[in-house]
Amino acid sequence: MAMYTQVYAQFREAQERTAERRAAALYSNLIADLSQLNFADADDRRAFPPTLHSILARHGLFGLTTPGEHGGLALPLEEAINLISATASFDVSAASTLVIHNFLALPCIQAAPHIPEQNHIIWGATRGDLCAFALTEPGAGSAPRHIEASALMREDKVRISGRKIWIGLADWARWIVCFARASGPDAKGRLVGVLVDRQAPGLKVTHEHRTLGLRGIIQNTLEFHDVEVPRSYVLSRDQDGWGAASSSMNRGRIGVAAMGLGALERAIQVAASYASHRRLGKLRMIENSYIEQLFGQMVLRREVVKAMLAASCQLVSAQGAPNVHLASATKVLSSEWCGLVADQCVQLLGGRGYDEGAPLAKIYRDARILRIFEGPTEALLSHLGRCLLSKATRDEIADLFRSVGAASVHGAAIEELSGLNETDGAVLIYAGWLTTLGLAKAVMSAGCFSASDCAAAAADLVSSELATLRTRAPARQSVEVRNWASRTLTTFLEDAACSIRSPVLTDDYLRLVQYV
Asked: Domain Acyl-CoA dehydrogenase/oxidase C-terminal: where (predicted)?
């Protein structure tokens, strides 16, 4: 028995070494291929480089975590995250394609073995048949509970009607995972996920969104006009599409955090290269003590995001699914700090940073969407704050803090928030930030999620951020104070309407009617 155990351990160790070598080779080859592409030109043309899709397909990146029997790479989540970060360091649009396909849409299909020809569909997806994730609606945003698109459930058919907006990859996709509200005699009114063929009659692409960033990836409005699909293509047979949507979005948040890490790292590289050559008087810019400290803080922020991602991946490995609270906190911190670092790097380059000919302008534009994708920062912070304060979910947050060795941090946050109004939006946001930064401090203090020499300094940075946050702790606002804020806004709008004296605030100018 002892001999068997020893042989088995040696076999597993050899397997792990082989997997590590394979991942390292894949990473190296991908970087080499992406380095040959002109992403700046693709951004101008609002289309990917022609060979990008074939490069990603050749490396197997459309099946990052898909099991090998379905044609995927079967990578551990942490290795998949590394590849997404690497791709994002070249182009956030390209990385977004991998996140939408691998983390949002494909898992919904994999979790539905009853779909006809599921193996064939997944095999095609891993070879480059793109899959889109249609959740967002004009009146609901990405909040699944407010979706109005309907799925009329019949004995052998499902008829889908409704409109989806900002759907990444929609017009390039082979399959679309669409979420709608079930209706009909035997329906329970719950959310359902339905797999729809892009060529299905009644499904129309009516608009291409010209977004501030992510110009390489196509984003469309989809119109479903009585689109009929076989009932066997309902992904959630028990009509619990909420579970499928939330699970995918949690993985998506980890993917967005990885995109933020890659963009953040590239921004630092570009700015540091410039500062190493640019001279301020007798010294190079990078030798200026203020700028040295600024770069030091950027690097520490990067270390915190890396550690948060490592912790998120480790919990997935241990539990089989992302922890919703840690995934949300990781996404918030990565996206917010990526935006901050990109802004600082643009400022360091001065006019050159604002010039579209330099990489930073593109990074700056692309980074902005990360604070919105898979839940805006404010929505996620409100969710985290509500979970921290609510008796129904407080134990979940407490367990998470305990799992990273930070029960005392959780206790201090609860004590600090006692007595505040749990329904006040400002209190929820503040509580969400306490949770996010508290988890970050715990992760950095644990020591097992970061092998960097600057882990202790990064933990100090998070402590400093927490101290700054506490200077902005919400006070108990009286009704008079809240009414004053409302009156101030009303007065401004009336004043602006008189002073501008032009029809700039008409619906035609704002073009918001289709979104609200």
From this structure: 240-387
Q: For residue 210, give the CATH number of its domain.
A: 2.40.110.10
Q: Are residues 190 and 261 in the same domain?
A: no
Domain end marker among 80, 100, 127: 127
pLDDT in tens, 477-493: 666 667 888 889 888 88
CA atoms within 13 A on the CB side of 221: 14
> Quick one: 390 and 408 in the same domain?
yes
Look at 12 and 119; give whichever has higher pLDDT: 119
The pLDDT tens digits of the residues spanning 325-375 come to 999 999 999 999 999 999 999 999 999 999 988 899 999 999 999 999 999
Cβ-in-10-Å burial (0-12, 13-18, 19+) of 424 comes to: middle
* 78/323 Cα distance (integer angstroms): 15
> Does residue 273 sit within a domain?
yes
Instruction: Identify the domain boundary among 127, 148, 168.
Output: 127
Question: Rounded CA gap, 116 and 96, in Å?
Answer: 28
Number of other residues whose CB lies within 10 A of the CB of residue 315: 20
Backbone phi, psi, residue 196, to 5°: -120, 130
- For residue 177, give Cα distances in angstroms to 89, 101, 492: 28, 10, 44
pTM surpassing 0.85?
yes
Instruction: Say if residue 340 is exposed, middle or buried (CB neighbours under 10 Å; 0-12, 13-18, 19+).
Output: middle
Q: Distance (Å, rounded) from C-alpha 431 to C-alpha 509? A: 38
Spell 207-225 as b/e; 16+ CB within 10 A means b: eeeebebbbbbbbbbbbbe
- What are 229's strand-pairing partners? 158
330 shares its domain with 462: yes
Instruction: Supply the DSSP symbol for 260.
Output: H
Residue 448 belongs to domain spanning: 249-471
Please list the alpha-helical segments (H only) found in 280-421.
289-319, 324-349, 351-354, 359-370, 377-389, 394-403, 407-417
In 3D space, the residue among 186, 280, 169, 303 whose CA is nearest the CA of residue 234 turns out to be 186
Q: What is the pLDDT of residues 290-329, one digit of tens each?
A: 999 999 999 999 999 999 999 999 988 778 888 999 999 9
